[in-house]
Specification:
The protein has 192 residues and is α+β, with helices and mostly antiparallel strands. The chain is globular, with a radius of gyration of 20 Å.
């Protein structure tokens, strides 16, 4: 595995300051995450506790694994976490997540954020002594085409989908016979 020995956060300028995220940024990151969720995935919003939990993992170092981009007034315009969790039994994966406020997209912030995350993720993969496949993993909601294009241009490919199924519960449930090849069983821990 080849990875950069050192990486730099994106360059700061008069409009944007990049630095390591700290626990003091949790509320501001949460506020930015809510703005992103309202546009990208309104049915799922990270809680403040979800974000705070990332800072509490024993296997992360926010000074090297987390970054924020701040406006001159201190507002978090973008944030990114790059996490190498334990449990490297079948693969080594570095998980990249974060976001850019919708009203600040189209300015190259996401591109710079993802470039930093990708380099940090490669460093994390290279730090493992395991001889397993190494994956950079990220996720996005359907319809977030700007991020999808960025990931594709960087060589990432879609390998997994999650579906959210809904139905109008005021309508009766119509019977649908099950194909004879299948059987319906209750979920259990053994089937997890």
């Amino acid at each position: 595995m080849t990875a950069p020995t050192t990486i730099q956060r994106p360059d700061s300028d008069d409009e944007l300051t990049w630095r390591a995220a700290t626990a003091d940024d949790i509320d501001a990151i949460h506020e930015a995450a809510r703005a992103v969720a309202a546009v990208d995935h309104p049915h799922y919003v990270e809680t403040r506790e979800d974000i705070a939990e990332e800072f509490d993992h024993s296997y992360v170092d926010p000074s090297t694994d987390f970054t924020v981009a701040l406006a001159p007034d201190g507002t978090v315009l973008a944030w990114g976490f790059t996490i190498l969790p334990p449990g490297q039994d079948t693969l080594v994966r570095s998980i990249l997540f974060g976001g850019v406020r919708p009203d600040h997209r189209g300015r190259g912030i996401g591109r710079r954020l993802f470039a930093w995350q990708r380099e940090r993720g490669l460093q994390q993969l290279a730090s493992s002594s395991k001889t397993l496949p190494g994956w950079l993993v990220t996720y996005l909601s359907d319809g977030v085409t700007d991020a999808q294009h960025l990931y594709e241009r960087s060589g990432l490919v879609v390998t997994r989908y999650f579906l959210e199924l809904t139905r109008d519960v005021s309508l009766p449930i119509e019977p649908h016979p099950l194909d004879p090849e299948f059987r319906l069983e209750n979920f259990s821990a053994a089937r997890s």
